[in-house]
Design goal:
Elements (H helix, E strand, L loop, with lengths): L2 H4 L3 H4 L1 H12 L9 H13 L6 H7 L5 H24 L4 E5 L6 H5 L5 E6 L1 H10 L6 E5 L8 H4 L5 E5 L8 H14 L3 E8 L1 H6 L3 H11 L24 E8 L18 H4 L2 E8 L1
Parallel strand pairs: 1-2, 1-4, 2-3, 4-5
Antiparallel strand pairs: 5-7, 6-7
Helix pairs in contact: 3-4, 3-6
Length: 284
Protein backbone atom coordinates (compact mmCIF):
# COMPACT_ATOMS: atom_id res chain seq x y z
CA UNK A 1 0.00 0.00 0.00
CA UNK A 2 1.16 3.55 -0.69
CA UNK A 3 2.82 4.99 2.43
CA UNK A 4 0.73 8.21 2.62
CA UNK A 5 -2.44 6.10 2.78
CA UNK A 6 -1.02 4.20 5.73
CA UNK A 7 -0.10 7.40 7.54
CA UNK A 8 -3.58 8.98 7.43
CA UNK A 9 -5.25 9.56 10.79
CA UNK A 10 -8.70 8.11 11.47
CA UNK A 11 -10.25 11.50 10.71
CA UNK A 12 -8.20 12.13 7.55
CA UNK A 13 -8.97 8.60 6.41
CA UNK A 14 -12.66 9.48 6.10
CA UNK A 15 -11.77 11.56 3.02
CA UNK A 16 -11.61 8.28 1.11
CA UNK A 17 -15.34 7.81 1.76
CA UNK A 18 -16.19 11.15 0.13
CA UNK A 19 -13.79 10.42 -2.74
CA UNK A 20 -15.41 7.03 -3.28
CA UNK A 21 -18.89 8.59 -3.14
CA UNK A 22 -18.06 11.18 -5.81
CA UNK A 23 -16.56 8.49 -8.04
CA UNK A 24 -19.56 6.22 -7.52
CA UNK A 25 -22.01 8.99 -8.35
CA UNK A 26 -20.02 10.03 -11.42
CA UNK A 27 -20.46 6.51 -12.80
CA UNK A 28 -24.21 6.42 -12.12
CA UNK A 29 -26.84 6.65 -14.86
CA UNK A 30 -27.83 10.27 -14.06
CA UNK A 31 -25.05 11.76 -11.93
CA UNK A 32 -25.77 14.63 -9.56
CA UNK A 33 -22.13 15.64 -9.89
CA UNK A 34 -19.46 14.65 -12.40
CA UNK A 35 -15.96 14.12 -11.05
CA UNK A 36 -13.78 12.07 -13.43
CA UNK A 37 -10.70 12.84 -11.33
CA UNK A 38 -12.30 11.05 -8.37
CA UNK A 39 -12.92 8.01 -10.58
CA UNK A 40 -9.30 8.01 -11.69
CA UNK A 41 -7.94 8.27 -8.14
CA UNK A 42 -10.27 5.73 -6.55
CA UNK A 43 -9.43 3.11 -9.16
CA UNK A 44 -5.73 3.54 -8.35
CA UNK A 45 -6.40 3.36 -4.63
CA UNK A 46 -8.50 0.20 -4.96
CA UNK A 47 -5.45 -1.62 -6.27
CA UNK A 48 -3.26 -0.29 -3.47
CA UNK A 49 -5.63 -1.01 -0.57
CA UNK A 50 -7.03 -4.37 -1.66
CA UNK A 51 -5.05 -6.21 1.05
CA UNK A 52 -5.59 -3.57 3.75
CA UNK A 53 -7.43 -4.50 6.96
CA UNK A 54 -8.76 -0.97 7.36
CA UNK A 55 -12.61 -1.15 7.43
CA UNK A 56 -13.00 1.89 5.15
CA UNK A 57 -10.56 0.42 2.63
CA UNK A 58 -12.38 -2.91 2.58
CA UNK A 59 -15.77 -1.28 2.07
CA UNK A 60 -14.38 0.68 -0.87
CA UNK A 61 -12.66 -2.31 -2.46
CA UNK A 62 -15.74 -4.52 -2.07
CA UNK A 63 -18.21 -1.73 -2.93
CA UNK A 64 -20.17 -2.24 0.29
CA UNK A 65 -21.36 1.28 1.02
CA UNK A 66 -25.08 2.04 0.87
CA UNK A 67 -25.83 3.56 -2.58
CA UNK A 68 -27.67 6.45 -0.92
CA UNK A 69 -24.36 7.54 0.62
CA UNK A 70 -23.04 8.50 -2.81
CA UNK A 71 -26.27 10.40 -3.54
CA UNK A 72 -26.21 12.40 -0.31
CA UNK A 73 -22.51 13.24 -0.56
CA UNK A 74 -22.93 14.27 -4.19
CA UNK A 75 -25.77 16.58 -3.15
CA UNK A 76 -23.47 18.16 -0.57
CA UNK A 77 -20.65 18.58 -3.09
CA UNK A 78 -23.02 20.20 -5.58
CA UNK A 79 -24.35 22.58 -2.95
CA UNK A 80 -20.85 23.66 -1.93
CA UNK A 81 -20.04 24.15 -5.63
CA UNK A 82 -23.05 26.44 -5.90
CA UNK A 83 -21.99 28.45 -2.88
CA UNK A 84 -18.62 29.04 -4.52
CA UNK A 85 -20.15 29.91 -7.89
CA UNK A 86 -22.51 32.41 -6.23
CA UNK A 87 -19.57 34.00 -4.39
CA UNK A 88 -17.59 34.26 -7.65
CA UNK A 89 -20.50 35.97 -9.42
CA UNK A 90 -20.19 38.70 -6.80
CA UNK A 91 -16.39 38.56 -6.47
CA UNK A 92 -14.80 37.06 -9.65
CA UNK A 93 -11.29 37.62 -8.30
CA UNK A 94 -12.07 36.46 -4.79
CA UNK A 95 -10.07 34.10 -2.60
CA UNK A 96 -11.33 30.64 -1.63
CA UNK A 97 -9.86 28.89 1.41
CA UNK A 98 -10.73 25.19 1.56
CA UNK A 99 -10.38 23.76 5.09
CA UNK A 100 -9.74 20.01 5.37
CA UNK A 101 -9.56 19.72 1.60
CA UNK A 102 -8.81 16.00 1.46
CA UNK A 103 -8.83 14.98 -2.18
CA UNK A 104 -11.48 17.51 -3.12
CA UNK A 105 -11.45 18.54 -6.81
CA UNK A 106 -13.76 21.57 -6.60
CA UNK A 107 -11.15 23.92 -8.06
CA UNK A 108 -11.13 21.91 -11.28
CA UNK A 109 -14.92 22.10 -11.51
CA UNK A 110 -15.46 25.81 -10.87
CA UNK A 111 -12.25 27.72 -11.70
CA UNK A 112 -13.17 30.93 -13.52
CA UNK A 113 -9.59 31.79 -14.47
CA UNK A 114 -9.46 34.71 -12.01
CA UNK A 115 -9.91 33.35 -8.47
CA UNK A 116 -7.19 32.48 -5.96
CA UNK A 117 -7.56 29.11 -4.22
CA UNK A 118 -5.94 27.65 -1.09
CA UNK A 119 -6.31 23.98 -0.10
CA UNK A 120 -5.41 23.32 3.54
CA UNK A 121 -5.00 19.94 5.25
CA UNK A 122 -2.62 17.78 7.28
CA UNK A 123 0.82 16.93 5.78
CA UNK A 124 -0.05 13.32 4.84
CA UNK A 125 -3.15 14.54 2.96
CA UNK A 126 -1.31 17.28 1.11
CA UNK A 127 1.31 14.71 0.11
CA UNK A 128 -1.47 12.66 -1.47
CA UNK A 129 -2.88 15.73 -3.22
CA UNK A 130 0.47 16.45 -4.80
CA UNK A 131 0.51 12.93 -6.19
CA UNK A 132 -2.62 13.60 -8.23
CA UNK A 133 -2.99 17.38 -8.49
CA UNK A 134 -0.74 20.31 -9.30
CA UNK A 135 -0.37 23.71 -7.72
CA UNK A 136 -0.21 26.81 -9.88
CA UNK A 137 -0.11 30.62 -9.78
CA UNK A 138 -3.68 30.74 -8.41
CA UNK A 139 -3.91 27.33 -6.71
CA UNK A 140 -1.90 26.67 -3.55
CA UNK A 141 -1.59 23.76 -1.10
CA UNK A 142 -0.92 24.47 2.58
CA UNK A 143 0.28 21.66 4.82
CA UNK A 144 -0.80 21.94 8.45
CA UNK A 145 -3.69 22.15 10.88
CA UNK A 146 -6.41 24.77 10.50
CA UNK A 147 -5.94 25.37 14.24
CA UNK A 148 -2.36 26.48 13.68
CA UNK A 149 -2.40 30.25 12.95
CA UNK A 150 0.57 29.83 10.59
CA UNK A 151 -1.73 29.40 7.58
CA UNK A 152 -3.26 32.86 8.00
CA UNK A 153 -0.31 34.83 6.66
CA UNK A 154 -0.12 32.55 3.62
CA UNK A 155 -3.67 33.28 2.45
CA UNK A 156 -3.75 37.07 2.93
CA UNK A 157 -4.53 38.27 -0.59
CA UNK A 158 -6.70 41.18 0.50
CA UNK A 159 -9.87 39.17 -0.19
CA UNK A 160 -12.79 39.07 -0.48
CA UNK A 161 -12.65 35.66 1.22
CA UNK A 162 -14.88 32.60 1.15
CA UNK A 163 -13.96 29.82 3.59
CA UNK A 164 -15.24 26.28 3.03
CA UNK A 165 -15.38 23.66 5.78
CA UNK A 166 -17.02 20.56 4.31
CA UNK A 167 -17.04 17.70 6.82
CA UNK A 168 -14.53 19.37 9.16
CA UNK A 169 -15.94 21.18 12.20
CA UNK A 170 -17.68 18.15 13.71
CA UNK A 171 -14.28 16.61 14.47
CA UNK A 172 -13.14 19.63 16.50
CA UNK A 173 -13.97 20.72 20.04
CA UNK A 174 -16.32 23.68 20.54
CA UNK A 175 -13.57 25.87 21.98
CA UNK A 176 -11.40 25.11 18.93
CA UNK A 177 -14.16 26.22 16.57
CA UNK A 178 -14.70 29.38 18.63
CA UNK A 179 -11.01 30.24 18.51
CA UNK A 180 -10.83 29.50 14.78
CA UNK A 181 -13.74 31.80 13.93
CA UNK A 182 -12.29 34.51 16.17
CA UNK A 183 -8.96 34.23 14.37
CA UNK A 184 -10.71 34.49 11.00
CA UNK A 185 -12.62 37.59 12.12
CA UNK A 186 -9.56 39.39 13.41
CA UNK A 187 -7.08 38.35 10.72
CA UNK A 188 -9.20 38.06 7.55
CA UNK A 189 -12.61 39.51 8.26
CA UNK A 190 -14.89 40.30 6.71
CA UNK A 191 -15.16 36.80 5.26
CA UNK A 192 -17.93 34.43 4.27
CA UNK A 193 -18.01 30.97 5.82
CA UNK A 194 -19.81 27.92 4.48
CA UNK A 195 -19.51 24.98 6.86
CA UNK A 196 -21.16 21.66 7.47
CA UNK A 197 -22.39 21.23 11.03
CA UNK A 198 -23.81 18.40 13.12
CA UNK A 199 -26.77 18.39 15.46
CA UNK A 200 -25.76 18.59 19.12
CA UNK A 201 -28.43 16.01 20.00
CA UNK A 202 -26.84 13.40 17.71
CA UNK A 203 -23.27 14.30 18.67
CA UNK A 204 -24.12 13.49 22.29
CA UNK A 205 -25.67 10.19 21.25
CA UNK A 206 -22.57 9.28 19.24
CA UNK A 207 -20.61 9.00 22.47
CA UNK A 208 -22.45 5.79 23.29
CA UNK A 209 -20.82 2.46 22.54
CA UNK A 210 -23.82 1.44 20.41
CA UNK A 211 -23.55 4.49 18.12
CA UNK A 212 -19.80 4.06 17.75
CA UNK A 213 -20.29 0.43 16.74
CA UNK A 214 -23.01 1.50 14.30
CA UNK A 215 -20.74 4.06 12.66
CA UNK A 216 -17.98 1.50 12.37
CA UNK A 217 -20.35 -1.06 10.84
CA UNK A 218 -22.03 1.32 8.39
CA UNK A 219 -19.10 3.56 7.43
CA UNK A 220 -15.99 1.81 8.72
CA UNK A 221 -15.16 4.87 10.84
CA UNK A 222 -12.72 4.30 13.69
CA UNK A 223 -13.01 5.57 17.26
CA UNK A 224 -11.03 8.76 16.70
CA UNK A 225 -13.35 9.75 13.83
CA UNK A 226 -16.42 10.09 16.05
CA UNK A 227 -17.96 13.58 16.01
CA UNK A 228 -17.10 15.93 18.89
CA UNK A 229 -18.78 19.24 18.07
CA UNK A 230 -22.43 19.95 17.43
CA UNK A 231 -24.80 22.91 17.47
CA UNK A 232 -28.47 23.11 18.50
CA UNK A 233 -29.60 25.36 15.64
CA UNK A 234 -28.32 27.27 12.61
CA UNK A 235 -27.96 30.62 14.40
CA UNK A 236 -25.81 29.22 17.21
CA UNK A 237 -22.61 30.99 16.08
CA UNK A 238 -24.41 34.33 16.48
CA UNK A 239 -24.49 33.71 20.23
CA UNK A 240 -20.68 33.74 20.25
CA UNK A 241 -20.11 37.14 18.68
CA UNK A 242 -22.40 39.89 17.32
CA UNK A 243 -20.05 40.11 14.31
CA UNK A 244 -21.17 36.65 13.15
CA UNK A 245 -24.24 36.95 10.90
CA UNK A 246 -26.26 33.92 9.81
CA UNK A 247 -27.12 34.16 6.10
CA UNK A 248 -28.79 30.90 5.10
CA UNK A 249 -28.79 27.12 5.50
CA UNK A 250 -29.12 23.95 3.43
CA UNK A 251 -30.08 20.39 4.31
CA UNK A 252 -29.73 17.19 2.30
CA UNK A 253 -33.49 17.15 1.76
CA UNK A 254 -33.85 20.68 0.38
CA UNK A 255 -33.20 19.68 -3.25
CA UNK A 256 -36.06 17.17 -3.29
CA UNK A 257 -33.79 14.47 -4.71
CA UNK A 258 -35.96 11.46 -5.56
CA UNK A 259 -33.05 9.04 -5.29
CA UNK A 260 -33.03 9.55 -1.52
CA UNK A 261 -36.22 7.50 -1.61
CA UNK A 262 -38.14 6.96 1.61
CA UNK A 263 -35.54 8.97 3.52
CA UNK A 264 -37.27 12.10 2.19
CA UNK A 265 -40.28 11.32 4.36
CA UNK A 266 -38.10 11.59 7.47
CA UNK A 267 -37.39 15.24 6.68
CA UNK A 268 -40.64 16.27 8.37
CA UNK A 269 -38.84 15.65 11.67
CA UNK A 270 -36.46 18.52 12.41
CA UNK A 271 -34.08 16.35 14.45
CA UNK A 272 -33.72 14.02 11.45
CA UNK A 273 -33.67 16.71 8.76
CA UNK A 274 -30.75 18.31 10.55
CA UNK A 275 -28.60 15.40 11.65
CA UNK A 276 -25.98 17.15 9.53
CA UNK A 277 -26.55 20.25 7.47
CA UNK A 278 -24.76 23.32 6.08
CA UNK A 279 -24.80 26.90 7.34
CA UNK A 280 -23.64 30.08 5.57
CA UNK A 281 -22.28 32.97 7.66
CA UNK A 282 -20.74 36.37 7.34
CA UNK A 283 -17.80 36.63 9.74
CA UNK A 284 -16.89 40.21 10.63
Amino acid sequence: MDQPLQSLSDVSGTMLITLYARAKETCSWDPIITDPKAVEIIEIFKKEIRDSKNPIHQKIVKDRYNPKLAVSMALRSRRFDRYVLDFLKRHPEGTIINFGCGLDTRYDRIDNGKLTWFDLDFPAVIELRRRFMDEGPRRHFISGSILDPGWIKKVKTGGPYLILAEGVFMYLQEEEVKNLLSMIKHELGPAELVCEVSNLYWVKRMKSRYMQMKFKYQLGMQRDAVFSFGIPDSRYFETWDPAYKFLDEWTYFDDGEKRLGWHNWLSVFEVVRKVQWTVHYQIG
